[in-house]
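Continuing from the previous page...

OK, I double-checked the sequence for Transporter substrate-binding domain-containing protein against my notes and this is the correct one:
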Amino acid sequence: MKKIVLFLILLTNFLFGNSLAEIQKSGVIRVGVLGDEPPFSSFENGALVGFDIDFAKRITKDIVGENGKIKFIEVTAHNRIEALQKNQVDMVIAEFIVDPEREKVVDFSMPYFAVNTAVLTKVADHYDNISQLRDKNILVEGDTEAEKDLKKMGFKTTSCNDMFHCYSELKAGRGDAFAGANLIVLAYPIVDKKLEVNISSVGTSSYYAIGVQKNNKELLEAINKELITLSKEGFFKKAFEDTLNPFYKGTADKKYFLLDDIYRIFG
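Thanks. Re-ran it with the corrected sequence; updated structure tokens here:
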């Protein structure tokens, strides 16, 4: 009896994801995105805009069809896995970095962006080498590659609830630096001239990918096929030139966005 009760409890916390056939039949795909992470996603006049949004719309058009509808569901770095497991979303496009622990509970598509950990500091502090922060307090969002990289290297870190909290703590002087994915922290000096990113690559490269519920194989195969198609069409190059590079004002290296060399192996 106890085993049956336990099974039912587990079942209520884990629902099977919608299959590709079910999604295509309904004509609706649910996509988890971050609410305010420009240039990837942000609200303008009450509507979501940005690379992730355009990316999701194109995938929807090709997988669900011209008349397919997309439902955006706001997620956070802390609940996006849960949203997949509880079948609240069909896929997550939210700066989702592939790592071995996450791969145990989520299936990831082929990567579409490469990222490194970068460090945001105050211009007045003149930091330009990670060694200068050896005995300093580095702010990081919890359970991120930045936190893992710096802890492995023996640096002191303080965890924040989210990126904006880290930024606020740095501005308030309660941290000496803020480390995160370079494609995220590079955005801050654009709007705050008192900050800079002189330390742009710490640790090893990581990769953004689309997450789907574990074992949703047909949907994952459809997404991977779509990524190959988009790369061949130059979708990512166009997005870099039209949306991303203008936002970063030339400070982001193209190599962190474009993985077309990887996709060439598929012909």
